[in-house]
Design brief:
- With 301 residues, the protein is an alpha+beta fold.
- It folds into two domains: 10-147, Arc Repressor Mutant, subunit A, CATH 1.10.10; 164-293, Beta-Lactamase (2-Layer Sandwich).
- The protein is built from twelve helices and nine strands.
- Strand 2 and strand 3 form a beta hairpin.
- The two termini are 37 Å apart.
- The structure holds zinc ion.
- The site of zinc ion has 7 residues, from helix 4, strand 4 and helix 7.
Length: 301
Amino acid sequence: MANAEVELDLMELADLGQPLKLAHEIHRQLRVQFGSVPTQMPLAGIAAAVGIEVIDEHATDGIEGMLAIMDGRGAVSLHRGLRPGRRNFTLGHEIGHFVIPNHRFQSTKFQCAKRDMGQERGGGNWNQRPALERIEVEANEFSAALLVPRPEFNAERRKLGTACDVAHIRALAEIFAVSQEVIAKVYVQETDENIAIVTSQNGLVRRVIPKQGFPYLGLRRDMPLPTECLTLSFKVANDPVSNMVELPAHVWAENSRGIGALYEQVFVQEEGWAMTLIAVDEEEADKEDEDQDWNRRSSRW
Ligand SMILES: [Zn+2]
């Protein structure tokens, strides 16, 4: 399915300027064509359908993806040897530069470095961001939205059970052929539970992905993980995925006020990487419901 031929009605795309609306319109047309959106997005087919005639790979120094537009036609060059999830994100990003109408007014040659692939909207003043930075953010938003269609994501997520489990992240990343980081963001957004995902390598924080309203953790990239956390103490025997363990809230949260209980679960991965799921229950004003809730997090016991 990932190599399927795709037909797109470009007139329907032409009126859309926003990255998310463009991605959703492509999904709508894929649903018409295939019945549902393929979980492994047929990116080469989408690229061909919008007018990108060439996708090749080169060993490029510091550049993850390039797009050149000439006479309305596009050519993409990807850094050779990218992992499949990373390659898909980069190709989706370059398709984004091609289909988001105002991007080609900024440039007809895009050279996107790894740093560009990490550009996010953030909380600052959008209009004061440099134009060339804004188009990188938009290409990333388009790519993430295109690669993980929400109805199909939620259908796959439901098959894995109701409670949150850090092992779901890798499983869903494989289903949608994207990086675990891309899936982790969607996972956090789509769950009803109050969770955050922290990725780390060799005990140092790499990314913190909190649900909106999650208690402040005070962690930034390259800071050490909290000394008392499960991620640092968990020893892998057979299963690299730990149980969900309750910890004192202060282990992770800067301020424990309002937190009834805090839980941590870790998935130890290759090359010193770990993915940690932290979940909090709000402090209950009324304790009468406790009997019904006592086993909410028992999925791995
Ligand atoms: Zn770019």
